[in-house]
Specification:
The structure is a homotetramer of 358-residue chains. By secondary structure, chain A is an alpha+beta fold. The first copy, chain A, has a single domain, classed as Chorismate synthase, AroC fold, CATH 3.60.150. Chain A contains 8 helices and 18 strands. In chain A, helix 1 packs across helix 8, helix 3 crosses helix 8 and helix 6 packs antiparallel against helix 8. The longest helix of chain A is centred in the last third of the chain and has 25 residues. Chains in contact: A-B, A-C, A-D, B-C, B-D, C-D. Chains C and D meet through strand 1, helix 2, helix 6, strand 11 and helix 7 of C and strand 1, helix 2, helix 6, strand 11 and helix 7 of D.
Chain lengths: 358, 358, 358, 358
């Protein structure tokens, strides 16, 4: 199904940008797991809009209300459902989109797919708003992974043509604008401001790493960690590419350059390099699982654009109004972590199934 | 499950590199579809080993034997199972891999995951040999898509640091070494020969396009065409990255550059550019669906490499023997097409489900 | 997953007896389908408690609030989520059940499965209360089936040892106490009152028929209509048996008695009898699909019962307090219809997938 | 999908009655499990045809050939595929069935569903022959359950109107004609012979019990053991009803009669009776899991029957030739055990997933 994910757990996200609530149901989480609501709220805040100059002025509290599945803060084995209200809704902005679709948005494809019955308001079910539901589920999985010593971290690798330098570490990931080099971070912010000033937008790349993973998670062929993570990460609107470890760079290397030599460090088997991004044959090696995701520039821009009238099949100009981020990359960072955490916790439950207790 | 794919059809691939047979079962294909065995054999031949100087000398006939699901050449509605024998097996090559894993291979992760019970011979279930099963299913789906006017084409975009030029077209895709610029093709072949001569290997990038697609295939969030295709394509061993349309380049653009303006051409709604790769909101636009997949260099190289003895936890050198491609990119081309075709035919069946007949 | 159902649609039910809300998400319903809220409310009322002398005094409004998936009353293609509040909650009744389980309830198995973390209050996720969520989904599917001329009807076949007479028809199904013979109905009500007066409870059998079905729904082997319907109907707490057509009686017949002869009636192929219950090889014949479901007597009874203290492993008497139906059969009737409708609409979408438009 | 089963393992059965092979793929079995081929063959023999006077003269060796997934006799973690040839095929018997369907068979529904493209020969994918594939998978799961001390036993409860007496025990289950009372067994055999002599057939009921189960297997709502077992057992052609524990009899009882009192026996919590059939809230109690399955009389009978010509829509008589069992109940016994074992091993893997090691 379009809005469900998972093999050993099952996540369903629901809601439209301007429906009464959005939310998620997470099935398959073992009973007896404590969920820290404050940590979850703090995680959600990293995605929340309206916080600073480079995000949308739309403001949503984004506090998940758990309506079932927990007793106090502890999972009871039943499906966990949390909802959050869409409080700051301005439906008037989106009237004409069914016949004159916004370039880069799902307006046109939704119109074709749903025959005009889609909820066009605010992008409906295609809205980035739905990533709040993803982050509820992901925030839970991050806490469950942390119990096992697994941490999901990430940084902004680039905004437009500005690239960060250095290596992603946990201290970088904890920054409010997570870049290794704050000077490059300042340039990135400038690029965003400039795009906004020009009625335009800008994209970027997010790097994510999962640390502390045991070896042995994932399955061959279609159940590989690449498949599973890609399948979750492409659930975030605007993601157009993903690569693991050296990724597209590996395609330029020779085998002797790309292969990660095995080595022993502190009595533990590791690899000297990590071009594989911690995955061989779809299965975790125990090295950091690393990947990069490409985020396209926000399609909603103030500049006038060319579109068509679907009914009359004539060309037509369109000016997108409404409130939008000139760059969604900063807010997409926790979404990417959420998607990765869900994929990994799902794989970890699958590892249990085989008779290993992690 | 690790070896199954699909929502509206279900593909299961089975077999190990050196088991008696490998094969696949494909459920959910409507009854009454004619499968042309010669076209399928021709498609399989593009993947088959042992054909030329830049592939492994291992030779397998790779003719699928349909053991059920067809009456004559026509689908009967029951699951379709085809098998193909592993005739050219040399198990002796792989004895020591359980304790001394080959860098870049799944030997180590298989050992951890399966506790030593894995079939290590020839890479077992992780072997590229399994892509023959993928190609049986993909070859069927390609024929079923062709009935609807949908064509899946691809080319080698790069080998190592040699990049093709120009645009992918159907005539390029029909070449035995599918590149637009044959001069670049010659350079690519040189790069492969050089790698072989040095006991090394080389990777590359494959570009794929699906033409003639109707708009409206795919679903929002986790059911997007990006999710579905990535989930299938990462089922091919050695794929480490995928990007759709402009992909990672889109991350460098502004919204006004990246957004594809809608336009009317011959009375049909199209986009002036196709940075979206024919997918908006996870759903096909009717433009060519385009993506690129990064293939890592073959991990099996003749050069001596560093590994470890898993038991004694001491470092150790390893020299990989056996028969291997210095570059799997040419043989991976039909595999990528197969994976894309399976994902698309699955989505097309899902579109039927909604009450549209395609 | 435990709380999900469906192949072509996906239903997830969530909530516990005393959580803030219970609800359901239904994915995969095509866009553009009008849902009549009054018809749905009327259907829900048939299940609602507190209406008469033979049901629990617990009163719940049971009006589904749709929080997403509809625009006005019309499906928009996104997952449909509806919730309904648990307003009449008395958690105090259920304190001691974790250590002293009620016979016939899930208290003991929940304790073992969830290690004491289950929500014991009101039976938690095991409560019959969850069938309200099932009825939301089922009520929607009943409306969608009605569009195609398909009607789901049922009657009370027996309560305790009192059996109805005659054949199930649509006029019987529309009665508030759906039995053919009202005299037998009066006896059934007496049996319920008697059970209540004795601090006891009573079970019964529900007969269900689906009329107006096209031939060709369902799949062989595990996808048969028997498998699909059984899988949904056993989702209703207290159902302990199901039989299709002649069912267990067929086991006593000879083939010449049990086989339904084909015949032509008004130019349409039918069978002269319907011992098959409208299903051959798992697939609908176009005759009424008929089945019977056995409902056990409500396990909550006022009489003192024998239980154990799980901790001390000593025997112990238990008296169940709280508000309970002396017979859940009347309220289970719409639940059985709901389950059947969900299974059939799911199969009908699957039939579309194959290229037939129903 | 029609031919797949399972949540934590995945079984796919494939083949038609007269295709070259039938077979099955079983994914998700942990690595390192020894499969005893002789025990499996012995189990298969219990289903095999042609053994005695009351079964079909069709003779198939029914020895599963494992083509992958095992190394020696030990599972390697890859999907396990086994096939068995259809050696004794007489396609000529089935020519006219597409236009003149046999009563009680899937000929008519297959014709409608597959539009005439079905493999009609021998019943195609609907044939009881496919239960050989089910028995391969079930025979494996029975061995895996036995490792945990779980035994699946069954008996013939009735043939036609002859009912066995007494309680099902392991010694009964080990008989070649498994009934408690051999006198009744003799009567049953007489009933079968009589049916054959009259060109007719007869049905029956199979009782199955699973002993040695831990408490805690299964899930609430749709994941209950009733749902899971019913979903598998209805995969056997000819099964028309299933009931758990007291089943339909429970519907006649009062709560005080039907509720199973908890008690302590040898320091272990049990129930004094087992009307629940070892399942409360869908989850195993640790008591024997018991159910009964109704088998309809073989639809293939020698007597002339009424059918229709589908094309001309005129009535027509039909005489079924071919080789058929006058009673499939004895051969269905291991099939029911197989289905139960698959459902239980699947649930047991799911229990592992939650962090319990069984």
């Amino acid at each position: 199904m379009s809005s469900s994910y998972g093999e050993n757990l099952r996540l369903t996200v629901f809601g439209q940008s301007h429906s009464r609530f959005i939310g998620m149901t997470l099935e398959g989480i073992p009973a007896g797991k404590k969920i820290d609501p404050e940590k979850l709220a703090a995680f959600m805040q990293r995605r929340a809009p309206g916080k600073n100059e480079y995000s949308t002025p739309r403001s949503e509290a984004d506090v998940p209300e758990f309506i079932c599945g927990l007793v106090g803060d502890v999972t009871c084995g039943a499906p966990i459902t949390a909802i959050t209200a869409n409080t700051n809704v301005r439906p008037g902005d989106y009237e004409a989109l069914k016949t004159t679709p916004r370039p880069g948005h799902a307006d046109y494809t939704a119109q074709i797919k749903y025959g005009g019955y889609q909820d066009a308001s605010g992008g409906g079910h295609f809205s980035g708003r739905l990533t709040a539901a993803l982050c509820i589920a992901g925030g839970i999985c991050i806490q469950l992974l942390a119990e096992k010593g697994v941490r999901v971290i990430s940084r902004i690798l680039s905004i437009g043509n500005v690239f960060d330098e250095g290596e992603l570490t946990e201290s970088t990931a904890s920054k409010s604008f997570p870049v290794v080099c704050d000077g490059r971070g300042a340039e990135m912010k400038e690029a965003i401001k400039k795009a906004r000033a020009e009625g335009d937008s800008v994209g970027g790349v997010i790097e994510c790493a999962v640390l502390g993973l045991p070896a042995g998670l994932g399955d061959p062929i279609f159940g590989g960690m690449e498949n599973r993570i890609a399948s979750a990460v492409f659930g975030i609107p605007g993601i157009k590419g993903i690569e693991f470890g050296a990724g597209f760079e590996a395609a330029k290397m020779t085998g002797s350059e790309n292969n990660d030599a095995f080595t022993v460090k502190d009595g533990r088997i590791e690899t000297a390099t990590n071009n594989a991004g911690g995955i061989l044959g779809g299965i975790t090696t125990g090295m950091p699982l690393t990947f990069k995701a490409a985020v396209k520039p926000t399609p909603s821009i103030a500049k006038t654009q060319k579109s068509v009238d679907i009914i009359t099949k004539t060309e037509k100009e369109i000016t997108v109004t409404g409130r939008h981020d000139p760059c969604i990359v900063p807010r997409a960072v926790p979404c990417v972590e959420a998607a990765a955490a869900i994929a990994l916790y799902d794989a970890l439950l699958g590892r249990n199934k085989e008779g290993y207790q992690i």
